[in-house]
Amino acid sequence: MKEIKKIDEKELAVKTAAQAEQILEQESEAQVLPEVPEEVIAPQAPAVAQPAAGTPSGRGGGRRRGGERKPFSRKPSSLTDSGLIEKVVSINRVSKTTKGGTRLAFSALVVVGDGKGKAGYGLGKAGEVAMAIKKGLAAAKKQMIVIARRGTTITHEIIGQCGSAIVLLKPASEGTGVIASGAVRAVCDGAGIKNILTKCHRSNNPINVVKATFDGLSRLKAVRPAMTVGPAIGGAGGSAISPISCSSEANDKGGAQKEDQSDASPSITKP
Fold first, then answer.
1. CA 131 to CA 125: how far, in whole Å?
2. pTM above 0.70, yes or no
3. In this structure, are residues 120 and 109 in contact, taking their beta carbons and an 8 Å threshold?
4. What is the C-alpha separation between 138 and 136, in angstroms, rounded?
5. 85-146: CATH topology
């Protein structure tokens, strides 16, 4: 009964809206929570930077892990540290039948050159491919020859032959390139020939083709420098004697010497 009487007294005291608001404010002030020290408050998470406009976003966009990539530089596969151009022309698997069974081996044909007019070839055989190539390189370096060139091409047309393989080699003008098959191209690249026309006849065996190519290149004749003729007689640079006059004077001297020898010889009179 006492609780009912208290509620009735509150209802009777609240007669206007302003009085109701005052009562609510008083109750809210009484229920205010105690203040919390600043150290207990958790720090706020840092704001995430958004990508700038125009940059790729999402999976696969932006830079990868590890920073920027460095440019990948690699030496040509044919150029070695020694400065020689090494090219493997062909690798064949050979077998030998014996009483105990069949033995397998590999043969490698290798061409070596310095790109400045020297080249050679070698054939290596071994039970493994790597060892066969190594033997072929050693043999090719021992058989290097000097090839006559005129600029970036050969001096003249020639035909090389080995067995049934025939290779035609013709000089070409600047900008033609190497018109050749795989075996002949390897030889030309090693020798530094950049403009040439070639044609292989009859056999296409790479071993015979390489040997025929070296047969033709080894018989090339070098270009001799033109003979310079001195200024004309009575010119500003003084008098000069042509090769023809030199040869004629030499002939005259030789004739005079013969006459002197004939005069000096004693004459024999027959009785």
1. 8
2. no
3. no
4. 5
5. Double Stranded RNA Binding Domain (3.30.160)
C-beta of residue 20 within 8 angstroms of C-beta of residue 14 = yes
Cβ atoms of 154 and 148 closer than 8 Å = yes
pLDDT for 242 equals 46
User: Which amino acid, residue 132?
Assistant: A
Q: Which amino acid is at 18?
A: A
Only one residue has tokens 């047309």, namely 157
Tokens of 212: 């025929």
Q: How far apart are CA 183 and CA 205, in angstroms?
A: 9
Measure the CA dihedral 210/216/219/222, to 10°: -100
Which residue is associated with the tokens 């055989």? Answer: 125
- Please state which of the four CATH numbers 3.30.230.10, 3.90.870.10, 3.40.50.1240, 3.40.50.1220 is assigned to the domain occupying 149-218: 3.30.230.10
pLDDT mean by block of 10 residues, the chain; 271 residues = 50 56 69 54 58 54 54 48 87 92 94 94 95 95 94 94 95 94 94 95 94 95 74 49 44 52 52 48
Q: Are 154 and 221 in contact (CB under 8 A)?
A: no
